[in-house]
Every structure is written in structure tokens, then in C-alpha cells.
Amino acid sequence: MKIGLLAITDGGRELAADLATKMPEALLLPQGGGVVQSLAQHWQEMDGFVCVMATGIVVRAIAPLLQGKESDPCVVVVDEKGCHAVSLLSGHLGGGNDLARQVAAMLGGEAVITTASDTLGLVALDLWARDQDLVCERKESLTKVSAKLVNIGNLKLFSEVAIVSLPQGLVQVAGPALADIVVSPHLGDYGSAVVFRPRNLVIGVGCNRGVPVAELMHACEELFIEQGLSQLSIRNLASIDLKQDEVGLLACAEELGVRIDFFSKEELNKVANVTISEAALRNVGAIGVAEPAALLSAQSNDLLVGKRKWHNVTMAVALVNCTLSEQDRALLDI
Q: Which of 1, 46, 56, 202 has the most CB within a 10 Å radius?
């Protein structure tokens, strides 16, 4: 994290300078122009701020800058003696709670955390979902279900993704009708439940040269509607390496906000149990593109949707083998 350190008194600047020696990712911000100007100038470039000053000063300074918890940097306020590090803004997604704990430990002080889930020892749903690579379909509903978690102490969860373990406050149930939270790539009527989409689908793509991006996007939309799948669950696209310069395909990935994995014909030809394509053999020397590329990228044998052909496009969908855990999935892979 890029952290900006800001202070206004001599004692505060001394404490901020001490923090700067202990935090290699931190930068002492210049004092010229005052707190309001310094925060506004660096608001977009910093991941967080540690402000050694009164909380009221910081509140007034950041008020015009606030946009939303998904984009705002975190803000921690520290008193001049280093007794308390208050997580003021973006405690979960922005990392403010962790930063407050880190600063407090360095100064021998106490972290002040006011987010309800933390004080009650319950899971922070937004943070857990991010760590599990889940996308909330309707973010406004997340606030309501988070309040329910705090009020009741637990939420019922149904998942089509395998569960290794669940964090404090989430309880697995057998069906979506019983659930407060549903984790599924499939479209459906889930009532009042909050729906999280796992990024566990890979689209294998074969296409003719010069295919327009509009045709690729139309094919993707039609395929997912036809199969009852959510496009929010698309992890990435996959194709043959001969298409690395295909403008329409690259634009399609950009519009979907995902990457593309490319494979050689030799790699594609090693994949078993796929539909042999005479056209692909004739044109690119591969037994197929859409199906084997999807399976290779997903690193699984689960072809959820076999290849579907349009005029210039072929698509298939493979299912990624992933799990839900109480821990950050990225840490589990270390």
C-alpha cells in the first residue's frame, strides 16, 4: 500500500517522521497548503493516509473527497502521543482496520476499530467476498444483509462452489430457498437472498479473422442467456495463440474486463474428450479451439457447455475447480 503521512504540529510531525522510518511504503506529505489541499492533491494516488491530528480536522478535510467505499483510500487518525490509531474510513475494503492495527503496534498504542463485524468477531462480508473472488450482483443489498448478520449473529449460505470452511457468522444450508446468501454462476429467482457470482467460468473462443467485437459480444450474451449463466462469473477468455493479435477478440476481453489465455496448437491437441473440429484441423492444425482452450485455462475436465457455433465465432465454457474458505484464497495458494 502507498501510504501518505500527514501532520500539522511539531509533535505530530515528529511522530509521523518516526512512522516513516518504520513504514517503507509510507511517504511524508509536504505541509504547504494545509491539510485540505494535501489530502485533495494526493487522494487519487494513495491507498491510505495516516493523519496525526484531531479527528474533527480530518473529517472536515475529507468530506468533499468521498466517493464510495470501493474507491476511497483508507484513513487512519492518530493522536500526537501515539496512544490511539483510529480507523476512520474504508476500514474493510480499503484496509483501514489493518492499517490502524499496524500503526498502533508500531507506536505501542491501541487500534480503535468501530466496524460492527470486527467488534463482534463476525466476518466482514465485503472483504471476505473480495478475498474469495466473488462478485456481488446487487451491491445495495449487501448493506442490508451485513446489518442482519450483526443483528442476528449468523447468515445462512447456499453455495454451488465447494466449501472447505466458512468464517464466523456464515452457516451452510442445503438449498437456495433457505439462504440469506447464494453463491452461484446460474441465473435464477433467489428471492431476497444476496447473490454472489463466483468467477469460475472460462470461455473458450474460436473465431475467423477480422470478426467484429460486436459479434463476439453478441455470441457471449446469447450463450449465457441460453445456458442460464451470469456474465459476472466469467473469469477469463481462452483461445489459440494464433489469435493473440485478433483485434475483435482483444476488444471483447477488454469490454468484459477479463484477460485472455492463449495456447499453442500442440497444447490444444493434448486435451482429451473434446469435439474434434475438421475446420480447426484444416485451418490451424488443432483438434479444436473453443473446448480445449477453455479446459486448459480452467485446469479442469469439467466442460460445462460444449462448443456452440455462430457465423464467425465458436464458444465453449469450462468450469474452474475452486472452493470457498474462511481464509483468503490467495494466501491458501502460497
A: 202
- Look at phi and psi of residue 29 and say left if phi exceeds 0, alpha if psi is from -120 to 50, else beta: beta
pLDDT digits (tens, 9 = 90+) for 238-296: 999 999 999 999 999 999 999 999 999 999 999 999 999 888 899 899 999 999 999 99
Q: Does domain 3-114 have CATH number 1.10.3470.10?
A: no
**Per the structure block, which three cell numbers stand in for 143?**
448493506
Q: How confident is the model at residue 312 (pLDDT cuts 50, 70, 90)?
A: very high
Mean predicted confidence (pLDDT) in 92-109: 90
Q: How many CA atoms lie within 13 A of 182 on its CB side?
A: 20
What residue spans in the chain does CATH classification 3.40.1390 cover? 125-198
Pick one of 1.20.950.20, 3.30.160.20, 2.130.10.10, 3.30.420.180 as the CATH number of 201-319. Answer: 3.30.420.180
Render 42-98 in DSSP notation, one character per residue: HTTT-SEEEEES-HHHHHHHHGGG---TTTSPEEEEE-TTS-EEEEEE--STT-HHH
State whether residue 205 is helix, strand or coil.
strand
Q: Which of 188, 195, 186, 126 is nearest to 157 (CA)?
A: 195
pLDDT, tens only, 60-85: 999 999 998 788 999 999 999 999 99
CATH hierarchy code of domain 125-198? 3.40.1390
Residues of the chain with CATH 3.40.50.11220: 3-114
Query: Percent of the chain, pLDDT > 90?
Result: 73
Cα angle value 224/226/230 (rounded, 5°):
30
